[in-house]
Structure formats: C-alpha cells, structure tokens
Fold these 2 entries.
Entry 1:
Amino acid sequence: MNRETVVTEALDLLDEVGLDTVSTRRLAKRLGVEQPSLYWYFGTKKDLLAAMAEVAMAPHAEAPLPEPGDDWRAWFLDNMRSFRRTLLMRRDGARLHAGSTPTADLDRIHRKMDFLIASGVPEQHARTAMLAAGRFTVGSVLEEQAEARYGDSAEPPAGVPVIDHESAFEAGLALIVDGLAQYVDTRPRPLP
C-alpha cells in the first residue's frame, strides 16, 4: 500500500457510495488495513479529501494551456468546459472540489492569467472573471449532481421553462465572457 493506492481506492469508494459515506473506517476496510494505518499517509480526513480532489482534477490540470495568439474568448470557454467535464467525471466531484485550494496547479493558473492579461484583459478583471467562472461552474455541477443524486423527476410548475444543465451552463458562461469582453483592450501585448 502507498499514498497513490490509498487515493485511488478512496476515489473508487467515492464513486460507489458518495461523499457523505466516504470514511477512513470504510476506506481502511476496503484496503484490508487497520484505520490508524491510513494516518501514515494522511494526517487527517481533510488531508485525504484534498489529495482526492487534486487527483480527481488531473484531467483538467492536463488540458493544454493557452498559446500566444489564441483567441481569449474561445480559450476561456474551453477552459471552463474542461473544468465542468472533469467535475462531472466523479460522483460528487463538485462537492469534493468545493473549498479545495489548488496548490499543485499554481503555475498553470499563473500562465492562464498571464495569457488573459496579454490578450488585453485587465489583471483585476481577469482574476475576477476566472474566480467567478470557476465558482459558477462548481455551482452548476453541484446542482446537476444533486439532481442526479436525489432523482428529481418532478415536473416543474407551469410556466417555468425546462432548461437542460448543459444549456444553462453555456448560457451563464456566455454572460460572463460577454461581460468581460467590454473591458478588453484589443491592442496587441506581448506575454510577460
């Protein structure tokens, strides 16, 4: 047993039983070890959950970074779509990710910010837009996964439009990008 095995098994357990039911006791039983042995790898359950969140986000963390000359709008949309897809890969993926700190991804985050700034997005607006879009994405996936978890099949009240989750996500994301576009200086700038 090693740290990677523990995280892999914990993520498999998450997919089977959901975040509310993941426990170190249950994970230890699954691994065929005593519960205290898990503390060799993770001091607390919070540490384990952070490691799980980092590994669960690997598909998004491996997505291509923007290149000079890329269209910032297209990249921004693709980046958030990748984030959404990655959150949806795991049962309760958005709940697992919510509140986590992207310590392993800081260089990539800086490169994304540098790209937006070089594309003419003012630094403060780039930060705000990335944070808002990230939180919007997590919230959208939370709603989608909650509906799937609780099996909400009730018809909405009369007069309430039915919008599928992907369409609602795309509409909200477009509003963020369109709002950000009004602040963009279109004069070419070199990357820092």
Entry 2:
Amino acid sequence: MNHPENITHSQTDQLHIQTDVILQKVVDAWTELQTQQPLVHCITNSVAANYAANILLAAGASPAMIDNPFEAESFASIAAALSINLGTPTSEQMQAMQISAQTVANKNTPWVLDPVGYGPFLKWRSEMVDQLVLLHPTIIRGNASEISALAGNQVESKGVDSAVSSNEVYLQAQALLNHSECVAISGESDFVLSKELHHVIQINGGSFLQPKVTATGCALGALIAAYSAVTTPAIATISAHIHFAIAGKLAFEKASAVGSFNVAFLDEIYQMSANKIWEYSNIQVLSL
C-alpha cells in the first residue's frame, strides 16, 4: 500500500476521479435495487432471520427465508441471489446450504457466503464453510477474525465477534480472491477487495452502536446479496456497505440509545436516496 506522503498530486487526482466513478455506480445500483426489487433467498441464523428480512424489505428487495433441504433446490433456482449465513446452523440448514449453493453455482446466480464463527473451535460449521468455498461464492464477507482465519491465518476470536481490526486483515484476504470474486471485511472501517477493481476500497462511517444491535452484520450480508442481483460483485459489496454506513451515521444523529437507534437505523435504510449517497459517502481508494 502506498503511504500518503508518497502519493503524487496526479495520483491523488486519479483516486478522486475513481471515487466519483465508484459512487456513480453505487447510485446506479441503488436505483436498480428499487426498480427490480430482486428476490433474495436467505439461509441465515435464528437470531438474524427477522432482522435481515426487515432490512431487505426496507432497502427495496424481496426476502425469502427458505432454509430447509426439501425446498432449497426449487427456490434457489428462481431466486435472483442467495445469502448463506452460518450463525446458528442446524443439520437441516447445513443440507439446505449445500443444495442451494450448488444450485446457484450451476445457474451462475450470485451468492454471498458469511462464515460466521469460522475458526478452530467450531469445527463442524467451519468444515461446512470449507466445502462451500469450493463452490466459489461470488462474495465472501465477514469480520476480521473470520476472514483472517478463512484466509489461513488463525487468530483469537471472542465467540463470533472479531478480536482483530479490519485494517490488519485486508492484505491477508487477497488469498480468498482465488475462490471468490470479492471479499469484504467489516469493522470500524470496512474494506472491500475484488478481482474487478485494482484497489482496496475503504468505507468509513456508520456508528459504534451498530455492533450493539443483534444481526446487523448478518443483515449486511443479505443486503450485499440483494445488490449483487442488480450490479457487479464489487459494486454490490461497496453499495451495501455504503448503504449501511450512511444509515448508521444518520440514525445516530437522531438517536443515541440502542433501542431508538435500532428503529432509526431501519428507517434510514428505507429512506436512502441518491442525494444521500453523494452527500454522505465516505470512501477511500487504497493502492495495494
């Protein structure tokens, strides 16, 4: 990565131009999300299902929480995108994940893998993640601990929460691009790596209260899936993170306690606009 003092004025101008191009694509993706209202097949955890569904509805997508193996293939075959989250896996969910992932892989439908809790202490789910990675998820997203572990660097984690920062991990995460089109790392700042773009995109914003609300990270994965139905993997991932970052920032300006923030955040997801994307987006284009 270039250090700021080593970046020339021409490079700085170029990065600003790239930022404007990216934001225009994000605005276009948000517009398409409202227009197409894609059907998103979600296999997610019991803690997150209701919240993720509400986030998708507020954002303009159409969620379906189909997580049993008897319906997985037929529904995955008609969905515009798939989101798989391993937060609280059951035996039947595990079967449904395999069936759905194989189905969308065969149809070239975009899908998101959220390897919640991946690491040496939760071997059953981690082995399933390893199998799913072989099916080449379109996008892999997780916190820094999960992504670091999945990239082959074992780190300490506290349950499913991250014990390392996202900016410590994004260079390690490049290895996952051998298995996926795009990788996203959530944290105080979010980082997006992709085959499509030749830079790392850092997304800033949000609120420190977002991790205090159960299932925000899980819902982010579902929103990435929704965006992936209407645009490229990299822009979909950036768009969902910007959507969340702006909603978190504006919600905190209205509500500074957890309960009221939760309601305000959902409202801001719903009230997103092209003008807000241009006004409040805070992204940086980082050179590798």
